[in-house]
Design goal:
alpha+beta; 4 strands; globular
Amino acid sequence: MSEIRIFIYHATDDVEGVEQAYHEVSKELVGVPGMLGNDLMRSVHDPLGFVVMSRWVDMDAFNEWEQGPAHKGQTSALRKYRDTRPGAVPFALYEVTASY
C-alpha cells in the first residue's frame, strides 16, 4: 500500500488556541504506530482557515489507530476548531500515487 495523507479542516479566528491545541494533540500522537508526522497549516486566502495534515505509512495503519480506543481522546483538543461552516468538508483522505 501507499502512504496516506489525512487533511482535517479547521476554521477559527483563535490562532493561539488552535496552535496550542495542535501542539497538545501532536504530543499525544508521538509514537503512534504508522504515523509519520503531521503539520498545521494556515490558509493564505481564508483568514479563518487551518488544516492539519498527517502522514501515515498506509491506510491500514491509519484505520487501526482511528478505530482504536485512544483516537478520540488524543485528538479532542482540536475538535472544537473543526470547520463546520455551511458547505465545509470536515476532512479528506488521499493516497500518494507519485512522489519525488
